[in-house]
């Protein structure tokens, strides 16, 4: 019998674990019995983030004990000889989750050899599973997805990610520039879903001055595999320290890069 493809096994595992973790998050969201804290100003943390990450970490460690792990909430594990590392946000959109807004997801990516090999995002409130394997296309609940056919920002909607790391003035300038180019600016508070929606043609672009790897790596692979444009997020120390990000439909790549004018992201 032919040996199983190790990355295909990781894709299947990530899909199953994302569904299990999402089901836990959904149950806890609906019973609303969790405590809410702040890691810093405007930086929400609920006890469900930790519970969900523990579940994901232990399932992946059982199945692939040699793999590394980087999560938003827990201490990581370095990769062993195999060199693959899981990058996980147990609940992306924590501010929504904490306030009873049903727009959040589980995000699981697997990186090896400096490339994102597997990306899975599960939205448990809509039962939507986005998944991609490098070289294998991008899917939503099993059906192929692609970015929008937008060719001008004047008819585009762009999510502009916001966080306390990037500075208020810079954020307002970014919104201003993108709006002046004619795009409709949005922010719904989940970077992972915002970028995945670009892959699925529900938004035309996503821009953020600084985003962490656990928030966006799975979605980056989705956009790439769906045929969209994504800036080189893993350059420099992107995996461990984050980077700026632009993701968009191919027809608005030049306009959005020009409008955003983010240092280091050029045509
Ligand atoms: C945040 C969200 C937000 C993005 C921030 C992230 P969290 O992650 O994805 O949309 O703009 O950069 O930190 O706190 O919900 O996991």
What is the radius of gyration? 18 Å
Name the bound molecules: D-MYO-inositol-1-phosphate
* DSSP strand tally: 14
Range of helix content: 25-40%
Strand order of the largest sheet: 3-4-5-6-7-8-9
The SSE string, one letter per element, is HEEHEEHEEEEEEHEHEHEHEH
Low-confidence stretches: none
Report the major sheet: 7 strands, mixed
Taken from the alpha-carbon principal axes, the silhouette is globular
Distance between the termini: 47 Å
Average the pLDDT over all residues and give the rounded result: 96
| Helical run tally | 8
| SSE class | alpha+beta
The portion of residues forming beta strands comes to 25-35%
Descriptive account of the structure:
Helix 1 (6-31) runs antiparallel to helix 2 (47-63) and helix 5 (191-199) packs parallel to helix 6 (213-226). By secondary structure, this protein is α+β, with helices and mostly antiparallel strands. The strands form three sheets. Strands 3-4-5-6-7-8-9 form a seven-stranded mixed β-sheet, with helices on both faces. Strands 11-10-12-14-13 form a five-stranded mixed β-sheet, with helices on both faces. It is built from eight helices and 14 strands. The protein is 36% helix and 27% strand. The chain binds D-MYO-inositol-1-phosphate. The site of D-MYO-inositol-1-phosphate has 15 residues, from strand 4, helix 3 and strand 12.
